[in-house]
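Recap from last week: sequence in, structure out.
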Amino acid sequence: MIIFSNIKIKFDIAIPDSFLYGITSEIDRTFKVFQLSRALSIFRVENIFIFHDKLINPKNEEIKFIITLLEYLDTPQYLRKKIYSRLDFLKYVGKLHPIRSPHHKDKISLENIKNGETRVGFLEQKDNKFFVDVGLDSLINYQGKFKQQGKKIDVKLLKKNNFMIAIDVNREEINEIYWGYKVSYFSSIYEILNKYQRSKIILTSRFSENFKNDSHFLSKLKNDANFESSFLLVFGSPKFGLKEIFNKEKIPISNYQSFNFFPSQGTQTVRLEESIFGILAIMNNLSNS
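Predicted structure tokens:
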């Protein structure tokens, strides 16, 4: 997130579901998704869109692994066992370091909770009443709009008549620098591109013009920014670049701005997870330009 005056510039990213192409070891696959989750969290990405790569066509099990592990890593530790207790492919997550985003709060006793504190909760139904598990030593009475057992929601905790209740809270109301990311899957990259103005879409390619962090780009970035939407950074696959992916989808790539963020790179290739981390770091650094 970049701040110009009172305008917060946010970046979402789009990656292909072939993200794990060529990685066969389950522990290596786990660590690669962990690196992606770390990058999203460090640079405060709020939306990661995963689109189907029609050139590689990865298996459904591989796609499920990426999506589930990303969602698992974004979930506070006090809820992980309850939500993901029976998934065998998560057997290596215990070797990963905690991400420790602001919404990954510690499990504490009810008496130590602050009035008005925001937490991620897990919705549970008992008889005709709904409660949320928010990492305390007891469930909290939920008084909100959701009625779906097992749903993960954001809540604000309030003391009412000597009791603690949980009410709904919008992301915009949460007074934290970051509150995690949302994972969405699409069968076509076109569906994602169609959600954004073309001026707010940035493609990444080593065959494009070199990215220049200059006053012209900063001015354009500021002019295109608004409060309603984010910029979208789009990445190719470990095997194919965006040119091949766009050609397969019959999308004219020339309609979009594209940059090479790693000119004169010292390696033959830049891995996808390295590219994501590096480009997010470059865009984040614009706040100091």
